[in-house]
Amino acid sequence: MSSNSHQANDPRLPSAQRPYKAPAVSPQDLPVDYSGFIAVIFGVFGAMFRYKLCSWLAIIFSAQALANMRNFENDFKQISMAMMFGIMGLVTNYLGVGQRVVDVVILTCIWVCGGYVLKLKSGQAEL
Amino acid sequence: MAAKSKRHSHSPFTMISSFFFPRGGDSHLCFLALFSILSLLLHHLTVSASAAAGNPSQPHFEGFDAEEDDDEQLSFANDLPLRSSPPPITLTSPSDPTESHHGPPETNADVDSVPDSEDSSSPASDVKKPSSSFEFWDEDEFEGFPVHVPASEDAESESSGTPAGSDPKVETEPESRPEDSVVPPRTIKSFTVEIVCGSFLIVFIINYFTGKKENENIALAWVMKFASKDSIFDRNFSLLGVGETDDSPLLLKEGQNMFKFYASGRRFCQGMLATLELKSRHDLISRLYNMVVPCKDEMTFEVYMNDDGMDQVVFAVARKKLAKSMHKEERDLQRFASLVAPPTGRKWLAEELAVVSESKEVAGDLITEIALEKVFGDKTFEKFGKNFISLHFSDQHLGSHKKMLVFKFALPDAKNMADMSRLVALIPYYIDLIGRYKLSSHARSKTEAARLKVAQEMYKELQNARQEALQKKKADQRKKLEEAEAKLSAEALRKKEAKERARQMKKAMPKMKMSKAH
């Protein structure tokens, strides 16, 4: 009886304790990183058409994405891309020299990120 | 054969694409999209290049202005480099000579008849007809149009600024524009974008650190209040925190506004996960957004019950509006439960609350006197219930763990954490209540029937889904096979065919021999 009443007073049960294990979250279930996406779009527009406002907005939104980043490895690639576009847009805008060089850089960047997107898409398709 | 050659022409393209990009079902489409972006950019490049090349040779081009063949090209090149160069009238006025071919050319300069046949923009040029300038006009070519044609040429020279220099104002215009773009007036106004964006960025960074600190303070205040030594969770759970050992950190930080607290080692349940979802104070943009659309710091407790520690219970309590939406959205509530009207002759919840439950019996048993007295009663809810959002007990939760109690509360300020201590006390209370609770045999048979029915439906759905998946898989395989075949180059196909033919020949040969031997 005494043990029973003791148990009633103390609900703890060390024998039943289980350590925490983080639930596995598949990449599709992750919340969409809107700010990163907007940043990429603004970045591309800013770099392509040389709107400095777009480039600035790209940098602001990539800062937001950076602030809201949950998983460094997953998110950083996309955010860094957006930032690169934004910074490149600003460089073209304010330095204004070597525009052809920058154009070539933009071309390769679009090429590379297109490949990156395709890789993502095909990866999802295979999943 | 036509199809084959088509395939052949297609293969290098796919090879290139597969060289750069991983293969995928819709990689062609994506490649096309990418290609279109590239071509857009290339077009942009060529335009800017022609702009760079076109500027110095501007007057040179304009010498040929009068030539009809160059009209369109010229206007194209004219428009692009100098956005503000001669107004688009050039487009209409050069067309005057061509139009004069179509329309009957009035040799006697019949001013009145011509505007009728032309559009509204041309009368201006028509009026100027009498003023003739023949310097750049090849008279031999247009002998038949002495009056009309020079007039239109004149209009054109006025608008596009020919080297004739007949109009000095036009001459200076193209020169002054480039100057404008090279040396813009450097006032504060021209830096508005930079100033605004730069200062926003700085404020954003400052806010990031202050907001982060704020959120951490709230989370720490919560932990200090409810998970420190001799606090409510310490008295109820033997393991606190996400680590294995006792001195491991209590809180797990996920992102800047999400904290998790885990506890385990209690009767009736396997563990409890509390998730603090705070406002995005670290993010200036969401902070501004939240000024328009206010939100609260929320906290969700998920108690994972033992499999044998919970009877068949589906039950939820929330404010009326939320209860209705939960009833629609949560699948277990939607399937098993319905809104329960308050019974007569009994103390019941505060008026603003509503119950969604599988049966009246469950609702009556789970809303106990103590719970009413502590939180849910009319008077106490006014005092302590402002942070209550919802509670939802179910043995049919979706996901990895089926039997789960979910409590949702709003978090008070860091200073007023004690406000929610009564709500937090509900958690161990309900764990024990549910753990000990047994349905009556009557209710039990009802719930079992309901679960069986749902399980059967689920099974049917599952089977349908499985069949669909199977069919889809088959179709995919067929598609893949076809694609692989299409990828084979014509040469390989020819080889294959040759091989096939050889094999057939071989097959046929011995027969011949056999027949000969016989």
UniProtKB/TrEMBL annotation, chain A:
Pfam family of the protein (one): ASTER
Domain of life: Eukaryota
InterPro entries for this protein: ASTER
Annotated spans, Disordered: 1-25
Primary localization: membrane
GO cellular component: endoplasmic reticulum membrane
GO molecular function, one term: protein folding chaperone
GO BP, one annotated term: protein insertion into ER membrane
Keywords: Membrane, Transmembrane, Transmembrane helix
Membrane-spanning residues: 37-67, 79-95, 101-118
Cellular location(s): Membrane
Recorded family membership: Belongs to the Asterix family.
Record protein name field: OLC1v1016966C2
Naturally occurring in which organism (per UniProt): Oldenlandia corymbosa var. corymbosa
Automatic annotation (TrEMBL), chain B:
Biased composition (Basic and acidic residues): 168-180, 491-503
Gene Ontology annotations of biological process type: endoplasmic reticulum calcium ion homeostasis
Cellular component, GO annotation: endoplasmic reticulum; membrane
Segments of skewed composition (Low complexity): 120-132
Positions with biased composition (Acidic residues): 64-73
Protein location: Membrane
A Pfam cross-reference name: CCDC47
Start and end residues of each stretch annotated as Disordered: 52-132, 151-183, 491-518
Stretches of the chain forming a coiled coil according to its record: none
Keywords tagged on the record: Membrane, Transmembrane, Transmembrane helix
Membrane topology, as annotated: Single-pass membrane protein
Predominant subcellular localization, coarse grouping: membrane
Domain of life: Eukaryota
Ranges of compositional bias, category Basic residues: 504-518
GO molecular function: calcium ion binding
Name of the protein: OLC1v1002329C1
